[in-house]
Design a protein that fits this description.
The protein is of the alpha/beta class and 287 residues long. The chain is built from 12 helices and 9 strands. A 7-stranded mixed beta sheet has the order 3-2-1-4-7-5-8, with helices on both faces. The protein has a two-stranded parallel ribbon with strand order 6-9. The chain is globular, with a radius of gyration of 22 Å. Pfam families: Glycos_transf_2.
């Protein structure tokens, strides 16, 4: 009787298994910081809690720009507490701009999705699972948190912050050019929606919140957008959405609550306001 020969396939390599098995998504959070010593432990704890409870694979990359208040020391302690596989400190020597901070962080990101957000507790991590669900439902390239849609909103802003988000200065500038020394628009302006109404008219971006900085991107999409963007400072976030529209990337939106910082001081000053106005006009003229 002839023996039955069983031919066994050689064991698959790890790489072959990865190719054959669906890849588990990983989310890399980029946290640019400058003087966020008090806020950083809280935002990291909230992020870890949200990801752990949702069973989401993640890493948090802290990009500190030479903070003089000891933010880097706090980040080093957090790295020890949570582990270097979850918290990665990638500091720089000085402030070099938001766009370059994202580029620096992405060099070290191992996730296939990137989440950008503020480290000052303005953005609550509880919305991140909603961002992820939204992205999966619509297969979006970008999911943006919006303060101006559904039950989204802004809480605790002072006038200076509202000016940047709502574009009041641009309207006042127009009145000044027309010779008015006392623009009446300040008395009745709807601070929560002004700028986005203005930018919708000028730029028609296809998104309700251009100046927000709480977003989820496919990693390759964010890399491409940063390559295309030329703006600095607060206009950078606006240009990202405008360029996304030009490149036909899809954008989903999730209503969020934006709360003003609890600790520390806003980085927003007169120079940023002027830059915002110049950047808005530049985008209008070139897109």
């Amino acid at each position: 009787m002839a023996s039955l020969e069983v031919r066994r396939s050689p064991p698959m390599s790890r790489r072959q298994l990865e190719v054959r098995s669906p890849r588990r998504d990983k989310y890399s959070v980029l946290l640019p910081t400058y003087n966020e010593r008090e806020n950083l432990p809280l935002i990291v704890w909230l992020l870890v809690k949200s990801f752990s409870e949702s069973g989401i694979n993640y890493e948090i990359i802290i990009i500190d720009d030479g903070s003089p208040d000891g933010t880097r020391d706090v980040a080093e302690q957090l790295e020890k507490i949570y582990g270097s596989d979850r918290i990665l400190l990638k500091p720089r020597e000085k402030k070099l701009g938001l766009g370059t901070a994202y580029i620096h962080g992405m060099k070290h990101a191992t996730g296939n999705y990137i989440i950008i957000m503020d480290a000052d507790l303005s953005h609550h991590p509880k919305f991140i699972p909603e961002f992820i669900r939204k992205q999966k439902e619509g297969n979006f390239d970008i999911v943006s948190g919006t303060r101006y849609k559904g039950n989204g909103g802004v809480y605790g802003w002072d006038l200076k912050r509202k000016i940047i988000s709502d574009g009041v200065l641009l309207c006042c500038l127009g009145w000044s050019l027309l010779g008015s020394s006392d623009p009446p628009i300040l008395a009745s302006w709807d601070y929560s929606r002004g700028a986005n109404f203005l930018t919708q008219i000028l730029l028609r971006p296809g998104a309700s919140d251009l100046t927000g900085s709480f977003r989820l991107y496919r990693k390759e999409v964010l890399e491409k957008l940063i390559e295309k963007c030329v703006s600095k400072g607060y206009v950078f976030q606006m240009e990202m959405i405008v360029r996304a529209r030009q490149l036909n990337y899809t954008i989903g939106e999730v209503p969020i609550s934006f709360v003003d910082r609890v600790y520390g001081e806003s980085k927003l000053g007169g120079n940023e306001i002027v830059s915002f106005l110049k950047g808005l006009l530049t985008l209008f003229a070139t897109t």
